[in-house]
Amino acid sequence: MIIAQITDFHISLPGERMDEMFRTASFLETAVKHICSLEPSPDVVLATGDLVDKAIPEEYERLRNILAPIDVPIYVIPGNHDDRGEMRSAFGELGYLPTEGKFLNYVIDQWPVRLIALDTVIPGKISGELCTERLNWLADRLAEEPLKPTLIFMHHPPIKSGISAMDRHGFDSGGSEMGAIVEQYSNIERVVCGHLHRPITARWHGTVLSVAPSTAHQMGLNMLEGARQQIVMEPPACLLHMWQEDTGIVSHTSYTDDYEVPLSVALP
After folding, report:
1. Whose CB among 12, 25, 90, 174 lies 3.0–4.6 Å from 53's, allowing a Cys bridge?
2. Do the domain assignments include residue 262?
3. What are the C-alpha distances in Å from 185 to residues 81, 133, 178?
């Protein structure tokens, strides 16, 4: 099973700052073409939040049009730039988002790897959290299938990345409590996140936590305490999480923009 992860699109309307300065829509179009060209094709695509910039219906409509060429299931979760109600309206017809309740938590259980979507959004804030209700929901879902390979996908990483400009808007509460739940289960192959606009990997409570880079702009790798946020136009990418029964999940960074391919040379 191959799981493609894309994140932090920040789609806006034509002429807006994100569209003109950072070309977020054109970068996502390139990422979509890249995913459609992959051989073998991914089985599913996870979109891990900050799908749009201002969370208005027109942005979600534009996003749906850009994603339309992807012909495998796309599973979305909200980021701090998203609105749950607008996401229900834009993606509700796909059938997996909960129609009731405060949070967009859900489980996809039809693949070799069980996919658990975890909503970490605090409305009106950049940072994320997991409250008691969401933690209890996660604990209940994990208890349902304690042996099946499982991947949890969420927007905010419950770790300190060392990039202080982003860690100031990281996880307000619930991260250690989530870790205490996760470490009870050896079947959790990955916890995958977005939000930080960088490829990051950490060992976390008995599993591997990974953060995908944005399909558009990245955040500068500045680990000085008190440093200001810096947007850099490093190559955009997605992550490909490949699950095999004998190895579990192996993750690859796959660059989505054009780059020079040198002449292939056969090696002994």
Report:
1. 12
2. no
3. 31, 20, 12
pTM (2 d.p.) = 0.95
CA distance linking residue 192 with residue 200, whole number of Å: 10
CA–CA dist 252, 211 (Å, integer): 12
Residue 267 domain-assigned (yes or no): no
Number of domains in the chain: 1
Contacts 24+ apart (CB under 8 A), 259-268: 259/235
Q: Is residue 260 part of a domain?
A: no
CATH number at residue 108: 3.60.21.10
For the record, the structure tokens of 3 come out as 């799981």
**Residue closest to 208 by CA, chosen among 160, 152, 166, 167:** 152
Tens of each residue's pLDDT in the chain, 268 residues: 999 999 999 999 999 999 999 999 999 999 999 999 999 999 999 999 999 999 999 999 999 999 999 999 999 999 999 999 999 999 999 999 999 999 999 999 999 999 999 999 999 999 999 999 999 999 999 999 999 999 999 999 999 999 988 898 889 999 999 999 999 999 999 999 999 999 999 999 999 999 999 999 999 999 998 888 888 999 999 999 999 999 999 999 999 987 665 555 555 5
Q: Do the Cβ atoms of 192 and 151 come closer than 8 Å?
A: yes
Q: Which two tokens stand for residue 14?
A: 């034509």
In a domain, 144, yes or no: yes
User: Domain containing 128: what range?
Assistant: 2-255
